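Hi everyone, sorry if this is the wrong subforum. Our group has a chain we'd like a structural model of before ordering constructs, and none of us has done structure prediction before. Sequence below.
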Amino acid sequence: MRIVRSTASRRSETPAAAMTTFASPGLGGAAAPLWKVEAAAETPGPLHHIDAEQVWVVLSGDVAVTVDGAHADLSAGDTIVIEADAARRFTPGPDGFTAICTGPAGMRAYMPGKEDAKMTPPWTA
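Answer:
Right subforum, don't worry. Here is the predicted structure as C-alpha cells:
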C-alpha cells in the first residue's frame, strides 16, 4: 500500500492553468499519473498534442474543448476521452473550470509541427 499525503502533492503552473499531481510514477510510484487542472476564467490553453490517450472529468465550471477540429462544451460531471496525438485546446468558461485527469505514465506533449520536441509534462512524471 502506498499513500501520498495531501502535503506531498505537487503543484505546477503554466500561463493557462495550475496542475496538482496527486500520484504519478515519481510521486507514490503510481503506474498512471492522476492530477487536477484548475484553469482561470476564459484563459485558453495552447493548441497542443499528447502522444497518449487521456481521460478528463470536469468537476466544476465549464470548458470548451476542441479536438482535431471537433468542438464540445463540457460542464461539471462530463468526461472526455481524448485519443493519442489529437490536436487539443481547452478554453475555460466565464468561471473557469476544474478537472481530474489521467493517462499512461511516460506520455509526452508537443506543439503542432514540433513532433521532434516532445516533453514530459512535469505533473505526469
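For your construct planning: The beta strands are 10-13, 17-23, 34-39, 49-50, 54-67, 70-75, 79-82, 88-102, 109-110. The radius of gyration is 14 Å.
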